[in-house]
C-alpha cells in the first residue's frame, strides 16, 4: 500500500510540471505550430517542408544556434549579454581547422584546441566582468572585435580548408538517420537543463539575475557565478565553431557573423526576460525552433537574404515588446 501511495503522490507533480510548462510557453508553442501549418500548406513550401530530410535539415541548421542560445539564456538571466560568441565561432573554427590542415595534428587535438579557444575567451570575459564594473555589453563588444580580428590575422582573410572525412563527420556526418550535430545539440540541452534546474549554480544564477545585492547578502559568490556562466558561454561558442567549420569543410574567418543576434532572438522569443532573473531552457528550445523554421521557410520560398534579416529583426522587436508588456503587468 505504501508503494502504491508513493506512486500516486508522484503523478500530480509530473502533471503539474507539464501544465506549468504549457502555460508558460503556450503563446510561443502556438506561434510555432501556426508557422509550421502555414509552411505545410503554402504552395511554395508544401511539397518539401514536411519531408523527413527537411526536418533533419532544420535541426542540423539550428544546432549551432541552440548551443549558443543555451549558454546565452544563462547569461541573460544573469542580467548580462554576450556579443562575442559569433566571433568565437570564427576563431575556434579556424584554429581547429588549422590544427588539422596546417599542422597535421590528430582530430582529437584539433577539437580540444578549438574548444579551448572558446573557453579562454569566455574566461577572459568572465574575469573582466567580475573584477571591474565595466558593463558586460562593453566587455564582450571588445572581445567580439578582438576574436574576429585574430581569426582574420591567423587566416589572412582566406578559408582554412579541411577535406578529411573524419573532420567532416563532426558537422556533416550521421549516426543512423540522425545528424551528428543534432546529437551534440541534444547532449548540450540536457547538460544545460540539468545545470539550471538541478544544481546550486542554477539557483544562484536566478538569484543573481533577480537581485545582485540581495544575492550577495545571502552569501552567494556573485563573481564566481558570473565567471562560470561566461566561461560556459565561451565553451558552447567554441563547440559551435568546430561544428560549423566541419559542416563547411573549412574554417572561415567570417563564420558566425550575426550568430549572437540569432542566439539572443531565440532566447528572447523563448520568454527569457532581458531584465534578468527569469527564463527557462524549455522556452529557449522553442524559440530556437521558431527561428530555425522561419529561416528554413524563407529559404524554401527563395526570399532574399536581406529581407530575411528584416523579418528576424521584426520578430526580435515583437518578442522584446511582449516581454515589456508582461513585465509591466
UniProtKB/TrEMBL annotation:
Membrane topology reported for the UniProt record: Multi-pass membrane protein
InterPro entries for this protein: ABC_transp_permease (IPR001851)
Alphabetical keyword list: Cell membrane, Membrane, Transmembrane, Transmembrane helix
Organism: Sellimonas catena
Transmembrane segments: 26-45, 66-95, 107-130, 137-154, 174-196, 227-245
Name of one Pfam family that matches: BPD_transp_2
GO molecular function, one term: transmembrane transporter activity
Coiled coil: none
Gene Ontology CC terms, in alphabetical order: plasma membrane
Record's subcellular location: Cell membrane
Main location: membrane
Protein name, as recorded: Ribose import permease protein RbsC
